[in-house]
Amino acid sequence: MKLHDVEKAGANRLISPPKPCTPAHLAQAEAVDLAIRFRDHIENRGFPCVGAKSALGRNQMTAYVGRDLTSAWDDVALADSLVKFAHNYNENYPLFTTFAAFFPSSPRMCEEGFEAALWERIASLQAKDDWLGQRYDTAVSPNPESPNFSLSFGGRSFFVVGMHPNASRPARRFDVPVLVFNLHDQFERLRADGRYEKLRETILKRDEKIAGSINPMLARHGEASEARQYSGRIVSDDWECPWPGRSVNA
What Å distances lie between residue 209 and 5, 214, 234, 238, CA to CA? Predict the structure, then answer.
């Protein structure tokens, strides 16, 4: 379910989740308005992630519009959508293909509250992936303490970027909570092409420009567990992941 161009008076183009992505409680007009706001947020010149800009500009951002990040209401449908997204992806797909899950009915949360809700959803979604009989991507570790940790859905590894209204880093702020699932395979393809470090440096410089400082939580995969980065909150060296990880049968 792609965010795609449609027409609207007063706007050249906007992105809108298709109707199958929209739960019954959320009117299509509300979903379209949410999509417009997210489109505008990413297209803003100050937004630092050029990968997200590319995904949006190439119509390669799939959207799921859920309800409440603090509720399990959407977990089965969202896990199923992520598994299908992973199964449909292959190495011939264009770079900057991504999946964004929106939770517009969530309560207002502080950074600690958002982090707790994010990991509750991750724990539940990973349990659903396991229940659906999906293997864990063997290229990564299921242990959130490992520097090689990553989530896995449908046999594909993902890095999660959490966004919400009260994030301390400007790049992580949006009107409603959002979980953006980025495929690890695409990072590896960028490394293989020799483009990863240049892209990373560009994002770091752009982020520093809007925040006034380099994000201290950023680390390359394999240097430190990426679990520390998911919520966007700045955590101490003794931070422990709220989720113990997933048991994977050999």
Answer: 30, 9, 18, 29
pLDDT bin (cut points 50, 70, 90) of residue 4 is very low
The Cα–Cα gap between 37 and 83 comes to 27
Distance, in Å, from the CA atom of 84 to the CA atom of 60, rounded to the nearest integer, reads 15
107-158 residue pLDDT tens: 999 999 999 999 999 999 999 999 999 999 999 999 999 999 999 999 999 9
Question: Torsion angle, CA of 230/37/175/118, rounded to 10 degrees?
Answer: -30
Could you tell me the end-to-end alpha-carbon distance of the chain, in angstroms, rounded to an integer? 34
Length of the chain: 250
Eight-class DSSP state of 152: E
What does the block give as tokens for 172? Answer: 């992580």
pTM: 0.82
Supply 91's token pair: 């190495």
Q: Say if strands 156-163 and 178-183 run parallel, antiparallel, or are unpaired.
A: antiparallel
Q: H or E stretch including 9?
A: none
